[in-house]
Amino acid sequence: MKSTIMSVSVAILFLELFVVAAMINISFCNGNSYVGCIDSEREALLKLKQDLIDPSNRLASWNTGDGDCCKWAGVFCSNITGHVLQLSLQNPFSYLGGDLREVKAGSNYERSKLGGKVNPSLVDLKHLIHLDLSGNDFEGIQIPKYLGSLENLRYLNLSGAKFAGMIPLQLGNLSNLQYLDLSGTFLSNYDLHVDSLSWLSGLYMLEHLDLSQMNLSKASDWLLVTNSLPSLKVLKLTKCQLCHFPPLLSANFSSLKALHLAINNFDNSLFQYGSWVFGLRNLVFIDLSSNQFQGQIPIGLRNLTSLRHLDLRFNYFNSTTPGWLSKFNDLEFLSVAWNSLQGTISSVGLENLTSIETLDLSGNSKLGGKIPTSFARLCKLTSVDLSLIDLSQDFSQVLDTFSSCGAYALESLDLSICQISGHLTNQLLQFKSLHTLELGHNSLFGPLPPALGELSSLKKLDLSNNMLNGFIPLSLGKLSHLEYLDLSNNKLNASLSEIHFVNLTKLTWFSASGNSLILKFNPNWVPPFQLETLQLRSCHLGPHFPSWLHSQ
């Protein structure tokens, strides 16, 4: 699915970088000669480096031997004036945590963090319009007040840099700012907070504001102030400890395209006092997940006809109003997962979502009924999650529904704990784009079809806790992208050999526990994979400890 919020944010960022590129004028068109950096600004950068801790030597090019600071890593200058316009010192790696590859990426992320202090010499870069220090580790120091002296700044990103304490009010002096990101990370122990957002009131050019994971519990003026920013297009206030949604006499969010209010403590007062939200006709992205909303999903949402992304997961909604989705012709992402919805899937009213790409109804255990045949019209579906819904349906019927026009688009299908029965058949051959297939905890029976090995894009396959029996097809060894394979707790009773794993070079998670499989590997076999998790309870490994395990 096209991630709408990324589209909005990237569009704004692209505009910003376009302006920077125009001012930097890197090319030599129109006969402009190269100027090189200003002496005083080179000295300012060298002082900045002195106070920074750089374990991975990212700033190795910042040295007195190379006098042209415009050629240093992360430094961009105007070719006309030589002034430093942009400092891009963000961590070049990101870390989400999880599987083995991400752990390795996390190690790179940790090694590449800059730390230490931000030297006040930074204010000598008076022409700076872009500053990015995101993803570094400043170990809980306060955001420097003197950043508010960089009056030409248009872009400031300090996200995930582990600053802490009170936000300096001096940031309110940055009247040219268009992009401001002070968001934290979920794994950080450092807390940014503020008692009021009044310092934002003068930032009339601000288009993108992200204060996610900042403690705004005392900032009772958060709505009043953000409403006063006439250019605001993206507002992110995820996990800000907000619980009160104050009345707003007049809404000025006419430019707003993306609204993130997830992981707060909002209740239905938002719909009582915030009915203006339903008038934001330009809104394309809204995330209200992980709050305290309950009862019926508000019918007013249907007025947001430009929406492409609607996230209501992890609340307490128990019902919908007929026709509430009828006008969402452009909706690409819908999640109402982990609510308390009741009735049948048909009652949710999904049949007109012809642009839908990601659909998540999972965790609504009181929702049931077969997948409606109208789903056959949802030809753009790439991801479907109906786990924990009582479908009581034969798997072949499910495949028939999704194969009508969307077989080639579907990339992820999760029907775990859905009371699915029947055989796995060669119908699966129609779903060549599948990278995730989760069918665990159902009543599937019979052998594994060779067609599974033809799903060449598969990264995750979960067939655990069914009644599958017989042989494991050798074709599984062709799944060169497979990372996760769970065959546990079935009735499989055949042999596994090297051929079953010959191309599984990316496999990190394998479970075959609860079967009667016999593992027959050559004593000198070296697996092509590096496992993170291996579960083989009740399998027959042979009289000796398997030598291939030494390589894992």
Automatic annotation (TrEMBL):
The keyword Glycoprotein applies. One of its GO terms (cellular component) is plasma membrane. It is found in: Cell membrane. It is a single-pass type I membrane protein. SUPFAM superfamilies: L domain-like, RNI-like. It comes from the Eukaryota. Pfam families: LRR_1 (PF00560), LRR_8 (PF13855), LRRNT_2 (PF08263). InterPro entries: Leu-rich_rpt, Leu-rich_rpt_typical-subtyp, LRR_dom_sf, LRR_N_plant-typ, RLP23-like. The keyword Transmembrane applies. Keywords: Cell membrane, Glycoprotein, Leucine-rich repeat, Membrane, Receptor, Repeat, Signal, Transmembrane, Transmembrane helix. SMART domains: LRR_TYP. Residues 1-21 form the signal peptide. Residues 39-78 form the Leucine-rich repeat-containing N-terminal plant-type domain. Belongs to the RLP family. This is Leucine-rich repeat-containing N-terminal plant-type domain-containing protein. It comes from Citrus sinensis.
